[in-house]
Amino acid sequence: MGKIKDMRDYVGKAELRELDLWKAVAAEFLGTMVLVFVGTSSCLNGWTEGYAPSVVQISLCFGITLATLAQALGHISGCHVNPAVTCGMLVARHISVVRSLFYIIAQCAGGLVGSAILLGVTPAERQGSLGMTSINPAVNVGQAVGFELLFTFVLVLTVFSVCDERRNDVKGSAPLAIGLSVAACHLAGVPITGASMNPARTFGPAVVAGLWENHWVYWTGPILGGMMAALIYTYLFRAPKITPSYDINLENCNKGGNKA
């Protein structure tokens, strides 16, 4: 996760000619499509009489799905599958402007297709709002922005921490850590704002179900939270650069150990 220093590389125009960019864009589309389809499927009501999904069920579904995708696609695109993560990587200069724009377009398209597939395979009486996020009536829009900002802050801070190439103390699974951060924030946030933490996750159902009330909250909060986490980690918490050390045996040198 090296930092881009050259301005031309940061703009990233040259990347348009690279196959790796388009493979990564395809991975972002596919990953976000799967995340939205599987995640919002867990939010559907009424499959059996009296059935309603629990907060724990929804939280684990989103967390495990993201961990699975990060393991499967992380080596291709970084598996952002979230415009807030991409914006964080952009302001911290870990990806170019061109790449970030194509990632966000792919993520929104993937979220839209994932939600459209869910609409197509779900019986009409079970569709509801297709897992669309909504704000609890006890919370005003300003508070909702704050919740989404802080939930996404936790996610992106975790992403930057486990992906810090300077750290040598990270043990275990980075995808699992990221997935658990999502599950934890869903456990807290589903009753409050739906715990979107991802503009593309909310964008898909909004388009397909035609539900746009307070939609801006789910862009403003997550993107601000993602950028704040990226900047704070990069400039305050990033592990120090490792200085190579050399084990020099001065005693042997003084003894003339290398004799001709």
Automatic annotation (TrEMBL):
Q: Does the keyword Lipoprotein apply?
A: no
Where, if anywhere, are coiled coils annotated? none
Superkingdom: Eukaryota
Q: Which InterPro entries match?
A: Aquaporin_transptr, MIP
Enumerate the Pfam families for this protein.
MIP
Localization per Swiss-Prot or TrEMBL:
Membrane
The portions of this protein that span the membrane are: 21-39, 51-70, 101-121, 141-162, 174-196, 216-236
How this chain sits in the membrane, per its record, is: Multi-pass membrane protein
Q: Which UniProt keywords apply?
A: Membrane, Repeat, Transmembrane, Transmembrane helix, Transport
GO molecular function per UniProt: water channel activity
Provide the GO biological process annotations.
chemical homeostasis
Q: Which GO terms describe its cellular component?
A: plasma membrane
Q: NCBIfam families, from UniProt?
A: MIP (TIGR00861)
Subunit arrangement?
Homotetramer.
Q: What protein family does this chain belong to?
A: Belongs to the MIP/aquaporin (TC 1.A.8) family.
Give the protein's recorded name.
Aquaporin-like
Q: What is the lineage of its organism?
A: Eukaryota, Metazoa, Ecdysozoa, Arthropoda, Crustacea
The gene behind this protein is Aqp-L
